[in-house]
Amino acid sequence: MIAYIIRRLFGAVLTLLIVSMITFGIFYLVPRWAGGTAEDLASRYVGRTASPEAVAEAAKALGLTDNFFKQYWDWLHAIFAGRDFIFGGSTYHCPAPCLGYSFIGRNPVLPDILDRLPVTASLAFGAAIIWVILGVSTGVLSALKRGSIFDRAAMGFALGGVSLPIFWTGLVSLVIFSYGLGWTARGGSYTPIEQNPLDWAYDLLLPWITLALLFSAAYARLTRAGMLETMGEDYIRTARAKGLRERTVVTKHGLRAALTPIATIFGLDVGLLLGGAVLTESTFSLPGIGKYAIDAITASDMPKVMGFVIFSAGFVVIANLIVDVVYAVIDPRVRLA
Amino acid sequence: MPAPDAFLDVRDLRIHFPTDDGLVKSVDGLNFSLQRGKTLGIVGESGSGKSVTSLGILGLHNKRNARVSGQILLDGTDIVGADPEHVRKMRGRRMAMIFQDPLSAMHPYYTVGHQIVEAYRVHNNVSKSVAKKHAIDLLGRVGIPQPDRRVDDYPHQFSGGMRQRAMIAMALSCDPELLIADEPTTALDVTVQAQILDLMRDLQQEFNSALIIITHDLGVVAELADDVLVMYGGKCIEYGSAVTIFEEPEHPYTWGLLGSMPRLDRGVTNRLMPIKGTPPSLINVPSGCAFHPRCTYEPQTGGRGTTEVPELVESGRGHLVRCHLPVAERKRIWQEQVRPKLEAGS
């Protein structure tokens, strides 16, 4: 088991390294191939209004005139050792772990992202709890009462759920529940949980439900399909033949096996959301990582965008790692692989 | 043979499944009985209804998609009409089942020990540690070496034969009075098959339980069974003591089964004599005798084979046969034509 985890950990680090190379390549190499000069690149980092001299200086200070491998090495080195940019007579320090330095905001990228992480994490985990409970229980009931009115209604609802984009459901629910009925917050506000848990929940309630409905639709369908398959397995018949209560048969023998693929997708979904629920955060104007990315892209602040991509990728990779470990805990056969 | 005091008494059992294509009569009017300590072999091809029967005895058919009628009296209690919760409490405790493929029949996520403990504790109010000791004890009794260590292994860590032993241990966990083994050796190597059969015979004697062996393999039946019931198309077509069925079989289908059984004493020059054709569809059961399209002797019934369903009639002491051929004619064909062919080369 420990060897398995170490192997997976090694794989995770390797994946991150490759992701960083590709991302770095996209931001720093591809534009050069496409004919851009170091100055063209630098102009994006200093904002649109900078003078040509400032741009040239920036290009040098950022190391954009160096060869690509040195640039990548400097960037990678900065993650572990930090980096100083000497620029326009001043020194800008980006402490380790340095994921980049925004010359527009004049600050390192990572602390900004970390500041916004609680918002995104609150949104992601809150919604995740709702959609797992809602989706899985709906799926199980649908599978057990296959063909019933409940099953048909739930699956019809689920089909609608997966088809509707979140910015639409989000806006519609805002119109109805916030502006119309006044039950929920109007978006744009976020109260940290340590300040006031009730306000925290109040502000996030609508985004949670909107996001959770979207996901629970998919999870209900997945769970239903998984349950229908497992409940037809031979070991379910064995469990019944032992005289186990039907509840035990369904939950302990059926659901446990059906949950394996769900756990996988759940891990990846949460990992993806932690890296920024871009659409939800934009729709509800929540100051999370996704909103940060949108703002960075709008401002053409490339170090921010690059930092965001690496940070999000990190979450996906970590989520993958956790999923692998959980998988081994759930299914003993995986440990041998 | 039906005795009023039989431990297991199945009377006119019918298990039908309504489907979109029509009513599937998997089991259609089955009668048999079994005493404690005795073994009944139910023989037939795939789709003859033998597994459906065994699941019926355990009360495992879903009321939503199966129509079960008739009576299954286990020690006087009717399983067909009983409250499902009552039947559940009997399952595993009074009657238990050994399934065909132990790899798919055991849950891959739980240890072998856990699955035995679970079967024991659902019917016995004991602590986990007591149940685990019981599981180790059972694993030892079914011949698993180092049971105290193997108890914590998962099914996939067992070999096929060991898994089947573990499956048997699980079925025996509550000392059931009726044990049903559904193709217990089909998924196993031939060498292991013999071991498992020996084990089942020993355990049956030790526990004095009634045993039903469901199989398509007459060799298995010859090893274990006291009585044999041959099923075809959901109906019993021949029923009698094992000696009768092997020495004086009277149904052409039984002859076919015997001819399909490889025997070392028959010599290599003699080919098997398979039954031509395939088992009947249970939706469009052939008219008359369900076996008539495959029966070599059908012309000798004077047309009744295609029009009239034969009754199950006693042809000797405790020997029931469902065939249109006259008894004397059947005995003659067996003695003069079939038996010499089967024994040729020996």
What does the largest sheet of chain A look like? 2 strands, antiparallel
Q: Helicity range of the residues of chain B?
A: 25-40%
Rg of chain B: 21 Å
Helix content of chain A: over 70%
Beta-strand content estimate of chain A: under 5%
- Per the principal axes of the C-alpha atoms, what is the gross shape of chain A? globular
Give the strand content of chain B.
Answer: 15-25%
Give the helices and strands of chain B as they follow along the chain.
Answer: EEEHEEHEHHHHHEHEHEEHHHEEH
Note the gap between the termini of chain A: 10 Å
Number of strands of chain A: 4
Count of discrete structural domains of chain A = 2
Span of the ends, CA to CA of chain B: 33 Å
Q: Biggest β-sheet of chain B: count, sense, barrel?
A: 8 strands, mixed
Main location (chain B): membrane
GO molecular function, one term (chain B): ATP hydrolysis activity
Pfam families (chain B): ABC_tran, oligo_HPY
Subcellular location (chain B): Cell membrane
Walk me through this protein's architecture.
The complex is a heterodimer of chains A (337) and B (346). Chain A has helices spanning 2-33, 38-45, 52-61, 68-81, 109-144, 149-163, 166-180, 197-230, 234-241, 246-274, 278-283, 289-298, 302-330, and strands at residues 83-87, 90-94, 101-102, 107-108. Chain A is mainly α and 337 residues long. Chain A folds into 2 domains: 2-108, no CATH class; 110-336, MetI-like fold. Chain A has a two-stranded antiparallel sheet with strand order 1-2. In chain A, helix 2 (38-45) packs across helix 3, helix 7 (166-180) crosses helix 8 (197-230) and helix 9 packs across helix 10 (246-274). Chain B has 346 residues and is α/β, with parallel strands linked by helices. Among the domains of chain B are: 105-175, no CATH class; 243-343, no CATH class. In chain B, the strands form 2 sheets. Chain B has an 8-stranded mixed sheet, sandwiched between helices. The radius of gyration of chain B is 21 Å and the shape is globular. The model of chain B has no long low-confidence stretch (mean pLDDT 88). Chains A and B meet through helix 9 and helix 10 of A and helix 2 of B.
